[in-house]
């Protein structure tokens, strides 16, 4: 039996909820008041589910999801997150969870968290002045957590999946350095650091794919190199190896006494870089070199925009293929590089020619060691 009941919110306004009543297998009366926002159709669907579960002897399934989200989050953190997520990711998740999600939803039972509750959370965060990127991250944390709840059979479906996420509004247009600017920065660096810049600008990895989950010598082929994608379960991403970068890597390999394996750019202990080592490199080596070269670039990560722009300008690959080279979706490529596509599409100049032209006497100077920077 379905009953429609009227309730009043804290603001005094009336709203309706549906209550479903039934008898369990022992003949006892049971009932469930469905969350605010539930439609009659959804109430009827729930009633049909009760009938089906009673017929097959699984009425106990209706009691699933009574665990509080706060308690489940502790279990999720210990059993899953601490075992599978990177330390930097855990730190970010903990901050967002403790500040934005736990105070608002921690007291809800898992089964009480519906798409309507998620929409209300989103509106509440926005009303509190939380920025769009942080709201999206909060929803991503919650979606990942509740996906484990589905897999562990605590709830039937993930309510966050049904909710449209806030759009990403980019507050700045990405600027892709021209090869001549890249070469000007490289001219201020010693061999190792100049080759790192070459990899970032002329093959487009994220810094973590190059140094923290590192590119290794065995990942280099004659025409491609492989970048591992640490936040996904995908296979390593093959990226085209252009001639000038192949030359830079060959010269660096000679400096390193021709290693056959191990990181291409090892840290001081011979292993992958830590996040602190990357940040120190960006602050102490890369940024001063860019300033000396007179090149305006915010962070070394932005060098990967150069690779995207070179591929777009060349016109050899489709946008889908370029997105695959960059390791993201075609939609992300279009939203990030729309202005580059409009400006450069149709020029059809080979990537190798553009880089070699920048390295010619009329372009940026050739790479050379300097005494002002660290490791050679």
CATH architecture of the largest domain: Orthogonal Bundle
CATH hierarchy class name of the largest domain: Mainly Alpha
Percent range for β-strand residues: 5-15%
Our count of domains comes out at 3
How would you portray this structure in words?
The chain is mainly alpha-helical. It has 3 domains: 2-63, no CATH class; 69-162, Tyrosine recombinase, N-terminal domain (DNA polymerase, domain 1, Orthogonal Bundle), CATH 1.10.150; 179-359, Intergrase catalytic core (hpI Integrase, Chain A, Orthogonal Bundle), CATH 1.10.443.10. It is 49% helix and 8% strand. The strands form 2 sheets. It has a 3-stranded antiparallel β-sheet, with helices on one face. Strands 4-5 form a two-stranded antiparallel ribbon. A hairpin with a 5-residue loop joins strand 2 and strand 3 (29-33). Helix 2 runs antiparallel to helix 3 and helix 6 (179-186) packs antiparallel against helix 7. It is elongated.
């Amino acid at each position: 039996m379905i009953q429609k009941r009227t309730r009043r919110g804290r603001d005094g306004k009336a709203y309706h909820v549906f209550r479903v009543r039934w008898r369990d297998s022992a003949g006892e009366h049971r009932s469930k008041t469905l969350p605010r926002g539930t439609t009659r159709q959804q109430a009827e669907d729930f009633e049909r589910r009760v009938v089906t579960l009673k017929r097959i002897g699984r009425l106990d399934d209706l009691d699933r999801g009574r665990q509080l989200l706060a308690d489940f989050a502790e279990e999720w953190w210990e059993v899953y997150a601490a075992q599978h997520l990177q330390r930097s990711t855990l730190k970010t998740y903990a901050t967002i969870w403790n500040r934005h999600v736990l105070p608002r939803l921690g007291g809800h039972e898992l089964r009480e968290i519906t798409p309507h509750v998620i929409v209300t959370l989103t509106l509440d965060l926005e009303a509190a002045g939380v920025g769009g990127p942080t709201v999206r991250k909060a929803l991503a944390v919650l979606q990942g957590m509740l996906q484990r709840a589905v897999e562990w059979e605590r709830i039937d479906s993930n309510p966050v999946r049904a909710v449209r996420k806030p759009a990403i509004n980019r507050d700045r247009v990405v600027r892709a350095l021209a090869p001549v600017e890249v070469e000007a920065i490289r001219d201020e660096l010693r061999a190792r650091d100049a080759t790192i810049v070459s990899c970032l600008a002329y093959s487009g990895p994220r810094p973590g794919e190059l140094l923290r989950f590192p590119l290794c010598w065995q990942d280099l082929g004659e025409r491609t190199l492989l970048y591992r994608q640490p936040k996904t379960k995908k296979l390593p991403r093959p990226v085209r190896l252009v001639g000038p970068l192949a030359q830079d890597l060959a010269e660096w390999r000679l400096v390193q006494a021709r290693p056959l394996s191990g990181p291409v750019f090892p840290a001081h202990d011979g292993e992958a870089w830590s996040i602190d080592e990357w940040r120190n490199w960006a602050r102490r080596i890369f940024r001063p070199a860019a300033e000396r070269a007179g090149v305006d670039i915010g962070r070394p990560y932005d060098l990967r925009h150069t690779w995207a722009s070179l591929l777009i300008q060349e016109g050899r690959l489709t946008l889908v293929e370029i997105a695959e080279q960059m390791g993201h979706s075609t939609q992300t490529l279009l939203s990030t590089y729309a202005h580059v596509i409009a400006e450069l599409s149709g020029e059809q100049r080979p990537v190798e020619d553009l880089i070699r032209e920048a390295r010619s006497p009329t372009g940026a100077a050739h790479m050379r060691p300097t005494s002002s920077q660290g490791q050679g």
